[in-house]
């Protein structure tokens, strides 16, 4: 009887596994065209990459505009699904989304699990601190530092500051709230994200982003690893966006003059070697 129960349980587990595997199409490009919708995993609380606009109540941002451009090229609609740094890769591999456009740094570890587009945004990891408190990395030794779970920022800061206590939150706004409450002495992630958080803070004059950088962070659009046709299509599309000036236009819209961030575009989208 026990043996029969074990067999039944095994078949049930296999069935569940099979459904999860079946949820991820073998050819996303063909499947997206067939269903007429591109499902994208994006951030929904991280200006200006992905956040809910107060007036329209829709998710907007730099990452969203890239997804919309890809969908337009495909001739399909876009469905946006909010993801976190920790949930985005599982959502992709389980077939719940077709593409990740969520401030995702390309690195060798992740590249073993999923496929990446060419770099469509480049930044570096820095910190938000109370103004005047941090002049060098040494000033953060032994301190409590907030970041997001499942991010490369979490790994990088542990390597750069082994004596620090790293507290990981569900997202960066929560980490910044901890800084405001004095529970951490710094928040760390990519400079562009930090600039977005600080720009929206009502008490932003109390904080700053010191010129202390611990890594380079190239962002890629994430797709399933063996989905070669879709990856090639996305790469071709974003290279065309660079050539036409559309990619630069999107950057200026979200980061350029007239925005709260006023970052300079120091990169171009090129074919990765």
UniProtKB/TrEMBL annotation:
GO molecular function, one term: ligand-gated monoatomic ion channel activity
Family matches, as Gene3D superfamilies: Periplasmic binding protein-like II
Domain of life, per lineage: Bacteria
Residue ranges of every copy of the Solute-binding protein family 3/N-terminal domain listed in the record: 37-258
SMART domains (UniProt xref): PBPb (SM00062), PBPe (SM00079)
InterPro entries: Bact_solute-bind_prot3, Iontro_rcpt_C, SBP_3_CS, Solute-binding_3/MltF_N
One GO cellular component, as annotated: membrane
Span of the signal peptide: 1-22
Keywords, ordered alphabetically: Signal, Transport
UniProt-listed GO biological process terms: amino acid transport
All copies of domain Ionotropic glutamate receptor C-terminal, residue ranges: 37-257
PANTHER family in alphabetical order: ABC TRANSPORTER GLUTAMINE-BINDING PROTEIN GLNH, AMINO ACID ABC TRANSPORTER PERMEASE
Family: Belongs to the bacterial solute-binding protein 3 family.
Protein name as catalogued: ABC transporter substrate-binding protein
Source organism per UniProt: Geomonas paludis
């Amino acid at each position: 009887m026990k043996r029969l129960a074990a067999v039944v349980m095994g078949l049930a587990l296999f069935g569940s596994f099979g459904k999860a595997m079946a949820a991820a199409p073998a050819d996303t490009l063909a499947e997206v065209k067939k269903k007429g919708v591109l499902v994208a995993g994006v951030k929904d609380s991280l200006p200006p990459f992905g956040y809910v606009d107060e007036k329209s109540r829709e998710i907007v941002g730099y990452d969203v505009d890239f997804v919309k451009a890809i969908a337009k090229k495909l001739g399909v609609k876009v469905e946006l699904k909010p993801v976190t740094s920790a949930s985005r890769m599982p959502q992709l591999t389980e077939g719940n989304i077709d593409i990740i456009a969520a401030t995702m740094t390309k690195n060798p570890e992740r590249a073993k699990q999923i496929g990446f587009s060419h770099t469509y945004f480049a930044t570096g990891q820095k910190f938000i601190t109370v103004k005047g408190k941090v002049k060098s990395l040494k000033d953060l030794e032994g301190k409590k530092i907030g970041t997001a779970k499942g991010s490369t920022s979490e790994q990088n800061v542990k390597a750069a500051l082994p004596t620090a206590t790293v507290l990981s939150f569900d997202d960066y706004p929560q980490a910044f709230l901890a800084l405001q409450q004095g529970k951490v002495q710094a928040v760390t992630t990519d400079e562009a994200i930090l600039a977005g958080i600080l720009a929206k803070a009502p008490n932003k004059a109390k904080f700053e982003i010191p010129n202390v950088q611990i890594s380079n962070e190239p962002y890629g659009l994430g797709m399933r690893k063996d989905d070669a046709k879709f990856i090639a299509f996305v790469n071709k599309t974003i290279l065309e966006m660079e050539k036409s000036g559309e990619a630069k236009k999107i950057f200026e819209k979200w980061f350029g003059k007239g925005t709260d961030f006023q970052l300079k575009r120091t990169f171009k989208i090129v074919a990765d070697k």
